[in-house]
Amino acid sequence: MMTLLLHLQVHGQASGKDLARQLEVSERTVQRDVEALVAAGIPVRATRGPAGGYRLDGGYRTRLTGVGLDEAGALAFLGLAGPAQQLGLGELLHGAQTKVLASLTGEARDRAARTAERFHLDPIRFFGTPEPVPCLTPLADALWRDRRVRIQYVRDGQVATREIDPLGLVLAAGDWYLVAQRSQQRRTYRVSRVRSVQLLDEPVRRPARFDLAESWAESRRDLEEEKTEIEVTVRVAARALPRLRRMVPVHGQALVPVAATGEIELTVPFESESWACEAILSLGAAVEALRPAPIRERIAGETRAAAARYDPAPPR
């Protein structure tokens, strides 16, 4: 009945069918709940006809909109329903949203609705599906409980066992990362590479004044500012520039324009010679490596080897 009352307060009027679907009950149950609310002095009015339904009379507003502790935790995911669902907070988030909206004035609620109609946050990258993260829920549970865990983690094709203190989960470009501490050192683990999680009886020792957002920004900055191993001069077609820009380190992306025409020549950094070759080869005929000579020769050799695979088979 509380949810029914809050729904009417937020939406103004709703049909019995809509309320039954929202509350996952029968229309008869909705009718009985409305009768109970009326008996308790709540001015719920029923209107018949195609445009009828239930509404609150006289601008009635309930003050019983307290947000529970679990719902308060879910509020951090407002606008991020997908990630909230992955963490098992979907229903809590919906309940918290309803209560927050119910506590607003009519004008503020209209502004919230207008904002939702005009802005949408999508943290998932294009042309990709989220990585499977079967261990996300137990890691989140360990974070809520502040408990140390023993994980099996795949790195460079090998499985390693680690005992770590989980400090926070971060969703970045659609992928989940675990920020943790091991042997007094801050570590970052890709959640999709975690194969198992064992909750231990030992409590987590969180560093004093630890700030997850600040820690993540620092880790990301360290990764993005890693030393460039090689610079390559290329001639590239304008249509391939957006893809090339995503393949070079962050500190080199400003060197790649995205609104050029024709072909342009530019020098860009890469983390390694191997990655430079892979990236340039992936762009096909849209790019030509000019310098340094060893890179050009290596790419030419790979191109010839690939072309040989597609030569017509000799007649038998």
Strand order of the largest sheet: 7-6-5-4-8
User: Mind telling me the CATH class of the largest domain?
Assistant: Mainly Beta
Radius of gyration: 28 Å
pLDDT below 50 for ≥5 consecutive residues: which ranges?
none
CATH topology of the largest domain: SH3 type barrels
What class would the helix/strand composition place it in? Answer: alpha+beta
Fraction in helix: 40-55%
Arithmetic mean of pLDDT: 82
Per DSSP, what share of the residues sits in E-state strands of 2 or more residues? 25-35%
What series of H and E elements makes up the topology?
HEHHEEHHHHHEEEEEHEHHEHEH
Q: How many structural domains are formed by the residues? A: 4
Q: Mind telling me which CATH architecture of the largest domain this is?
A: Roll
* Tally of strands: 11
Shape: elongated
Summarize it.
The chain is of the alpha+beta class. The chain has helices spanning 2-11, 16-23, 27-39, 69-74, 81-86, 90-103, 106-118, 136-145, 212-224, 241-247, 250-253, 273-282, 293-309; strands at residues 13-14, 44-47, 53-56, 147-155, 158-172, 175-182, 185-190, 194-203, 230-237, 263-270, 287-291. Helix 1 packs across helix 6, helix 2 (16-23) packs across helix 3 and helix 12 packs across helix 13 (293-309).
